[in-house]
């Protein structure tokens, strides 16, 4: 396996929560180290990280916060505090990273540690963080949801659903999406990856129910829904040990004749001739590989389980597939 294939295999079953106890300094140090192919002197890494952390560029005009809200004063007072890094704490941090297999010490004959080098896992943390930020900063933002809903409704000819089911391949249910769906349906069911009765606590969303999988079957009668949406469609969903087409087959069982299925994936991004942009695209594709589909892949998935009148379209980086049950 290549390094990229190893990461993809790992990322299929893990996310940034594996490193929830890490600090920003940890991530900065790993990102600086991963740039070096050969071992480097430990002090060199310390110097680079220290310069980055302690550098402070003063703006031409200092923002006056005397009349600002309390939260703004707190924010600017915090960011204006000097950030410092000292060798003992940095080397202790490296020791913790080495214990986790994220860096490797190269000891000399005298037992000292003059050099350090990256391991195959050093870049996992930055990549998982990038994956998390892309998924949670852009795709559930209010602006994005408004644009998405407009396009979505245009394709469905502003249809109102009587009863809709959302199936969640993601690690958690995105409440803003549930709120959005509730405005276009009289009744909504949610099938989470991990069942929990407290998902909707404090949301004040009405006419929403939880359902579950029992023996690879959705615990509802046949042909009960006139709409089913999978907002985070994945190649390898890790959803009750079922393949994605097996899940779609079960969707076909519970959706009524004439009902719509909606799959939301991520579109492929073509490489350019710009080396800097292509590096970003490579990181993007690597981080979101499990969610990236071609139009043909999305269409084939729906056709395999009998959906017809299939329409695939791209919108702001998302790939949406809409099909109907005869």
Written overview of the protein:
Helix content is 39%, strand content 21%. By secondary structure, it is an alpha/beta fold. A hairpin with an 8-residue loop joins strand 2 (103-106) and strand 3. Helix 2 (24-33) packs across helix 3 and helix 6 (124-138) crosses helix 10. The protein is globular and about 75 Å long. The mean pLDDT is 87.
Blueprint (SSEs and pairs):
Elements: H1 3-11, H2 24-33, E1 40-41, H3 42-54, H4 70-80, H5 87-99, E2 103-106, E3 115-118, H6 124-138, H7 142-155, E4 161-167, H8 175-182, E5 185-191, E6 208-210, E7 213-214, E8 217-218, E9 225-230, H9 244-254, E10 255-267, H10 275-287, E11 292-293, H11 295-304, E12 307-315, E13 318-325
Parallel strand pairs: 4-5, 4-9, 5-6, 9-10, 10-11
Antiparallel strand pairs: 1-3, 2-3, 7-8, 10-13, 12-13
**CATH superfamily grouping of the largest domain:** Vaccinia Virus protein VP39
- Number of DSSP strand runs: 13
Silhouette: globular
**Proportion of β residues?**
15-25%
Our count of domains comes out at: 2
Distance between the termini: 43 Å
CATH C-level label of the largest domain: Alpha Beta
Q: Any idea what the CATH architecture of the largest domain is?
A: 3-Layer(aba) Sandwich
Order of helices and strands: HHEHHHEEHHEHEEEEEHEHEHEE
Radius of gyration, CA atoms, in whole angstroms: 24 Å
Report the total helices.
11
Low-confidence region ranges: none
């Amino acid at each position: 396996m290549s390094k990229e294939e190893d990461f993809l295999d790992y990322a299929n079953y893990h996310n940034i929560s594996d490193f929830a106890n890490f600090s920003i300094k940890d991530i900065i140090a790993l990102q600086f180290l991963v740039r070096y192919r050969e071992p480097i002197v430990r002090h060199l890494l310390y110097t680079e990280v220290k310069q980055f952390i302690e550098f402070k560029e003063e703006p031409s005009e200092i923002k006056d916060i005397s009349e600002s809200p309390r939260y703004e004063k707190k924010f600017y007072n915090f960011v204006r505090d000097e950030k410092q890094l000292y060798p003992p704490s940095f080397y202790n941090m490296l020791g913790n990273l080495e214990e986790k297999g994220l860096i490797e010490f190269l000891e000399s004959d005298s037992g000292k540690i003059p050099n350090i080098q990256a391991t195959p896992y050093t870049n996992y943390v930055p990549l998982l963080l990038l994956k998390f930020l892309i998924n949670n900063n852009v795709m559930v933002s209010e602006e994005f949801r408004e644009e998405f809903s407009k396009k979505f409704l245009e394709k469905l000819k502003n249809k109102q659903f009587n009863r809709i089911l959302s199936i969640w391949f993601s690690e958690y249910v995105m409440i803003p999406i549930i709120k959005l769906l509730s405005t276009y349906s009289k009744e909504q069911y949610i099938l989470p990856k991990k069942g929990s009765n407290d998902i909707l606590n404090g949301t004040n969303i009405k006419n929403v129910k939880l359902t579950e999988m029992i023996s690879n079957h959705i615990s509802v009668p046949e042909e009960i829904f006139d709409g089913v949406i999978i907002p985070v469609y994945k190649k390898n969903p890790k959803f009750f040990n079922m393949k994605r087409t097996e899940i779609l087959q079960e969707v076909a069982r519970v959706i009524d004749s004439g009902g719509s299925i909606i799959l939301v994936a991520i579109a492929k991004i073509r490489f350019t001739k710009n080396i800097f942009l292509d590096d970003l695209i490579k990181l993007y594709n690597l981080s979101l590989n499990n969610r990236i589909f071609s139009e043909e892949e999305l269409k084939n998935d729906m056709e395999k389980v009998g959906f017809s009148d299939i329409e695939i379209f791209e919108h702001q980086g998302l790939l949406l597939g809409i099909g109907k049950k005869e």
